[in-house]
C-alpha cells in the first residue's frame, strides 16, 4: 500500500493532544510574516519581493485562486497513491523543491538543511547555481537521494562545461536550465534597500570554487572579493544566448534537460525541437517581468502545444496542496515549490522544510481524495472551472 501523506493530519492532532504542537503553523501562507518578524526586512524583502510593482506575483496568485476545483463523489478513494513518473524517474508525489539561490541569507545551514529535508521526504531537491554551498557538499549531504541541478547558463563556455561536469560527477540527474534570468530584473524592494546578496559574495560558492571561473581572476576570491564578485556579475548569465546555443548543453549533458521559465507555446515547441526533455512553465515567481502573464494562465496552452512531446512542470505561486491539484488540472505533470519552503527553512531549518513539504502533500492527498481522485494521473481539465 502506498504511503498516505494525509496521515500527517492525525499525527498533528494526536501529538497536539499530548501538548506537542508543530513548531510552525500548518497554514503556510503565514510563514512569510513570521519570517519577516524573525529576520527583518532585508532578507525577507529579497525573498518575498518581485519585479516592478509586484503585479506578476499577484497575478500568479489570482490565476490560481480564480480556478476552482469541482469535486466528484463516490469514486473509491480509499487507497491512494501520489507516485508519478517524471523524466524517467518515479517520484513519491508530483512535487520537487524549486531552485532558490543564496539560501544562507535565510538560515546558516542553507542548502544543506533544505537538501536533507527533501531527501528525508523523498522529494527531489533542485540546487541553484547560485547556492551558498558548493554543489559537491550538497550532494554529499544527500546520499543517493534524487537531486537536480539548476544551471545559470554562463557567458563563459568553460565555466558552463565545468559546472555540468561537476554536477554529473556529484550525481545530479536532471539539468534545469533557467532561461528567464539573462539579466536581473528591476526590483524596487531590493533597490530601495540596496540589498543584493551576491554583491557581498553570497551565492557564489559554486563559482569561487570552480577552476574555470578562478582561471579568469588575477587573484583568488579571498584576496580580492570585489574583483571576484564583479567577475561573477559579468558572466553568471548571458543575454546573448539564442535557441541554437542549446546544442552545446545537449551535447554535454546525457540526462534529461528541462528549460525553466517558458511561458509561450511557441517557445515550448522550440524546446522540443532542440531535443529538450521538459519545460517549467514559470515566471520566476513574478521576479523577472513585471506585467507578465500569470504562470497558471500560461500553463494550459503550453501543455496543449507540447504535452505529448515534453514533460511539463510548473511553478510560480504554489502555496498549498490545492494549488498543486489545480496545476495538475491545468496540464502540469508535477510542480516546483519555491518561497514556502524557503520560509520553512528560515524559521526552523531542516525540520521547517520537512514541515512545509508534509503540509503541502498532506493537503494535496486530501484534496485529491475529497475531489474523487485516488491518483494524480486522473486529474484533468474537467476538474477545475474558471470563476
Ligand atoms: C529568493 C529567490 C531566489 C531564487 N533563485 C533562483 C535561482 O537561483 N535559480 C532559478 O532558476 N530560480 C530561482 N528562483 C525562482 C524559483 O525557482 C521559482 O521559480 C519561484 O520561486 C516560484 O515562485 P513562488 O516561490 O512564488 O512559487 C528564486 C526565487 C526566489 C524567491
Ligand atoms: O533572485 C533570483 O530570483 C535569482 O534567480 C537569483 C539570481 C542570481 C543569484 C541568486 C538568485
| Distance N to C terminus | 37 Å
Helix content: 40-55%
Strand portion: 5-15%
* Bound small molecules, deduplicated: flavin mononucleotide, benzoyl-formic acid
Number of helices: 16
Number of beta-strand segments: 12
Instruction: Write out the strand line-up for the largest beta sheet, numbering strands in chain order.
Output: 4-11-10-9-8-7-6-5
Question: Assembly type of the shown chains?
Answer: single chain
Task: Round the mean pLDDT to the nearest integer and report it.
Answer: 98
- Tell me, briefly, the overall form: globular
Low-confidence stretches: none
Notes on the structure:
The protein has 387 residues and is α/β, with parallel strands linked by helices. Strands 4-11-10-9-8-7-6-5 form an eight-stranded parallel beta sheet. The protein has helices at 7-17, 31-39, 41-48, 55-66, 110-121, 135-141, 157-169, 188-193, 205-208, 211-214, 225-235, 246-252, 265-273, 295-306, 321-329, 339-370, and strands spanning 67-69, 84-86, 89-91, 95-97, 125-127, 147-151, 174-178, 257-262, 278-281, 311-314, 334-337, 384-386. Helix 2 (31-39) runs antiparallel to helix 16 (339-370), helix 5 packs parallel to helix 6 (135-141) and helix 15 packs across helix 16 (339-370). It is globular and about 70 Å long. Flavin mononucleotide binds at residues 46-47, 98-101, 128, 130, 150, 178, 260, 282, 284-285, 287, 315-318, 338-339. Belongs to the FMN-dependent alpha-hydroxy acid dehydrogenase family. It holds the Pfam family FMN_dh.
